[in-house]
Amino acid sequence: MTISPSLPPELTELVVxxxxxxxxxxxxxxxFRDITPLLANGQAFANLVDGLAAHYRGxxxxxxxxxxxxxxxxAPLAAHLGIGMLTVRKSGKLPGPLIGKDYNLEYxxxxxxxxxxxxxPGSRVLVIDDVxxxxxxxxxxxxxxxxxxxxxxxxxxxxxxxxxxxxARLGERSIDSVVVF
Length: 181
Known about the structure:
This protein has helices at residues 9-17, 36-40, 42-56, 69-81, 136-147, 166-169, and strands spanning 2-3, 20-23, 31-34, 62-66, 84-90, 99-105, 108-114, 124-132, 151-160, 175-180. By secondary structure, it is an alpha/beta fold.
């Protein structure tokens, strides 16, 4: 585990302290890192949102939450900052008009979609999600936000699984991972 050089170390400690590790879930050999204890601890979750708000205040105009756990992080952060939240969803979850981006998974493909009318052209957007693994979902979401005319200012992930190489798929972007495994 490493600590993000750009985020306050207290945030890393807060997340690690409220994280549950579940061996062999969802299949044998996988160590699942469960953030639900963090979400269930009202004070810890509030402190996380406060810390992220302090870090990004003034540098972003909107927060884009990626389906689905990214919504849990994006909504209170956007509300705390008094800015809008964009929802980037899996295919078939939003009414049109839409723009979409297909991306490859280990064992198939998927599609992310965005309502472009919710994006203010030229706005600075923070993309946030719970886990950065292979980077496909984040890369597709970034492409959609930029296609809609906004600028992705930064990417924030609660957890990063560095051995899966997702960071490399996001190019030279500013990526803040609260905890890196």
